[in-house]
């Protein structure tokens, strides 16, 4: 208002001009003061009461309507900022943090948690240490879900330090802190010694507090599983025996079925397949009546049941459960995508509504003022330009956020593939059959080829296409090192420098993985050095030709696409997926040519 008045004062050359241009400004000022007076007519008490109602509403929505819970918590936060109550404002920030976390918007959840901590510390509110400890627990889990490997553990220990300050009045806080740290190690860091240490501490504290049987049992079942995963079977059996001393009426259905699951694991370890199958199927049937089978715990349960059935030779039942597992995994992936899309949609809709509200307020102000002078016109144009600039800035930030989420998705897929590869490696150590170990090793090589693509997509600015030369060159080099062929095999790699989409690059990488692996495993060069040549060129837009040849004295594998082992059948399937054709020939060496 001051700038607008100053601008027009410089233009006027007489008093009547000054009066003509400043009258609308004065009128606008009176209208603005009236609007401000009306806005603050409400008492601080009524604003606080309304904010507490929205906080209660957010709590009610937390377990079934995360989007509504977020809406209610943000309304409470908006009202709390208009009050002078730091207690209310800290609660509103805490509620918003929980709601953002439930929506999967962890960056916003972290920001709100730190704001709550700052308010509690600055104003020395009631139960400050306990509430700060709760906030740090939430922060640790938020960073865990963001797959930040450095921040969660220090935050858990910071929460523990705040819990220690209020001993003995809040001993339950200590027990919960030890339980949280143990659960983190048990579920995420996979450091079983640390998990066992902190879970044992939690058991000790719960026993001092004369805690409920349910609280104690929840820690004990995790402790048994940690011992089995270490593995320290004897101590796990000892704690499991302690679990059996509790009456079934003292435990929830979840704990009772967790005990059955542990008994099933132990029976499977002892190769008592009938008992293992009976225990695991009982837990599976209970989980089918809840949401357990849709969780990671339920998926691990189903996989263990399938593995046990296969070991027992009950392949028909194993296939039945495998079909159900595939359906659950597909639904889980769909729900994760829905959750991500819903979070993005919510953020977009919130920004759109805020812009719409601002525009409506401007229009209402213009209608009330009713000024048709150049002052108002210039003011409106300036505000609209600022709003347009901010909108464009938000759109750009949203696009960057989407690209970041895509990179995060590729990062998580890569981590999941590496986790599966590690699990296969762990499983292979228990296998005695050489063919089975060989099959697992080949499966790990294929997983590595897939994980490499997602790693490149995660690290590259382009999240949709991949540099095929970089990908295949790195894949072949890793295979050469994996089979120890750096000295005995000479590589000639001639690959076009081109960007291909992931749907094409993935099957292409798996084909190269199979054929190059065959050369490293089976080809021999007699008295000469074995030479492997891999080339990929564009022969005609959009046709490509892949050639893999060696100078071996015998074929790397079967010489027909209809024969050979699983590897060549996989190559044949992947070539069909690329809408391509392929042929093999043996003349002064072994050559495979694929056109797609």
Describe the structure.
With 596 residues, this protein is an alpha+beta fold. It has a domain of 115 residues: Heat Shock Protein 90 (2-Layer Sandwich), CATH 3.30.565. It has 21 helices and 7 strands. Strands 2-4-5-7-6 form a 5-stranded mixed beta sheet, with helices on one face. Strands 1-3 form a two-stranded antiparallel sheet. The N terminus is likely disordered.
Topology:
Elements: H1 2-11, H2 15-39, H3 44-61, H4 66-80, H5 86-102, H6 106-123, H7 128-145, H8 152-165, H9 171-189, H10 192-208, H11 213-229, H12 233-243, H13 253-269, H14 273-288, H15 296-311, H16 315-369, H17 374-428, H18 434-459, E1 465-467, H19 468-482, E2 489-495, E3 499-501, H20 502-522, E4 530-540, E5 543-550, H21 566-577, E6 581-586, E7 590-595
Parallel strand pairs: 2-4
Antiparallel strand pairs: 1-3, 4-5, 5-7, 6-7
Q: What is this structure, in a nutshell?
A:
This protein is an alpha+beta fold and 596 residues long. 72% of the residues lie in helices and 7% in strands.
